[in-house]
Amino acid sequence: xxxxxxxQVLEGLQGRFRPEAIDREIIYYLSLGEAPGDKWTVTLSxxxxxxxxGRVGTAHCVLKTSADLFMRLVDGTYQPNALDFMRGKLKTNxxxxxxxxxxxxxxx
Length: 108
Description:
The chain is of the alpha+beta class. The chain is about 30% helix and about 25% strand.
């Protein structure tokens, strides 16, 4: 079962989606904990966004962090810095696409 507060945060992001920030389909895999409800696939395209629990397809960008840190990032109470990546609080395979995710939802 999905983490209810995490699921609510992700559903809230859909209303903040800015399609003009995306020029092609980009698939993100969010690994936000160890429980099945902490893992999500987010697909963004110029025509919309979708979010489904679990891993679906091959992601262009993977973000691994805690659900708490992700929710704080979304609500603006946390601003990541380079040290957070060096310490492993946030892990990604593509920083540029991660920044594009933030822009697509008006985060930060």
